[in-house]
Design goal:
The chain has 5 helices and 5 strands; from the N terminus they run αααααβββββ. By secondary structure, it is of the alpha+beta class. The chain has 2 domains: 1-130, no CATH class; 143-213, OB fold (Dihydrolipoamide Acetyltransferase, E2P) (Beta Barrel), CATH 2.40.50. The chain has a 5-stranded mixed β-barrel with strand order 1-2-3-5-4. The radius of gyration is 23 Å and the shape is elongated. The protein starts with a helix and ends in a 12-residue tail after the last strand. The chain crosses the membrane at residues 15-37, 57-82, 94-117.
Length: 225
């Protein structure tokens, strides 16, 4: 165990160990609903944060086509593992100069290996994310959604919205004011998990939809009406 911690906190593994902690923290927040999987993708036309063709640095490196958070998580995780294994194998071989050279070699191998492995893994993932691409963000304005978080306020909230083609998506939503009255036959202003709401606008700066409480009137043929 001591050897493991020495390798994990030593050069070059420590460079990836701290990054791996950030990755673990990020995915924990995603699982709790505080962030979306596409937190680093801001210019996708699909509204899903998925760069279908891939662009920028990741695209040039052959790692585009999936959310940047997925790609970076794979690179960091694989680089950490290869670096840790290499550091354990190198151990205290040779003197200080030889050990430094071997450590630099481990760093280069870890980066190269992580890039090659991630590039191979991204290829099948592209089909998954392209197949799950959501409609344009503009298509959601005017649609009903169901709140999936415990509350919705001016700084937090998620909801599930179903598009015209039947596909559903979890989107970031905000309620500008908790005093906005419910549109429909029922009263009340709070939006909680399971509440229905109306998407009435999209905020491109905050990259979220603006919603207001809404209850659709019962259908005439509904026996409960």
């Amino acid at each position: 165990m001591v050897e493991f911690f020495d390798a994990a906190l030593g050069f070059p593994t420590a460079l990836f160990s701290f990054a791996l902690l950030v990755v673990a923290g990020y995915w924990t927040v995603v699982l709790l609903g505080g962030l979306g999987i596409d937190a680093l993708d801001t210019d996708a036309d699909t509204g899903a944060g998925v760069e279908v063709e891939g662009g920028g640095f990741l695209g040039a490196a052959g790692l585009g086509g999936v959310p940047a958070t997925v790609t970076l998580s794979l690179v960091i995780g694989l680089a950490w593992f290869v670096s840790l294994a290499g550091s354990v194998l190198v151990g205290d071989t040779g003197g200080a100069a030889v050990h430094a050279l071997l450590s630099i070699a481990v760093l280069l191998v870890a980066l190269t290996g992580a890039w090659l492995c991630t590039r191979g893994l991204v290829r099948p993932l592209r089909r998954v994310f392209q197949g799950a691409a959501q409609p344009s963000r503009r298509d959601f304005v005017g649609e009903m959604c169901v709140i999936r978080t415990g509350r919705v306020g001016p700084d937090f909230g998620q909801a599930e919205v179903t598009s015209a083609d039947g596909s559903s998506a979890i989107v970031q939503v905000r309620q500008p004011s908790a005093d906005v009255p419910v549109a429909g036959p029922a009263g009340g202003t709070g939006l909680t998990a399971g509440s229905t709401a109306l998407i009435f606008d999209y905020d491109p700066v905050a990259e979220c939809f603006l919603v207001m409480p809404y209850e659709a009137p019962p259908r005439p043929d509904d026996p409960a009406a």
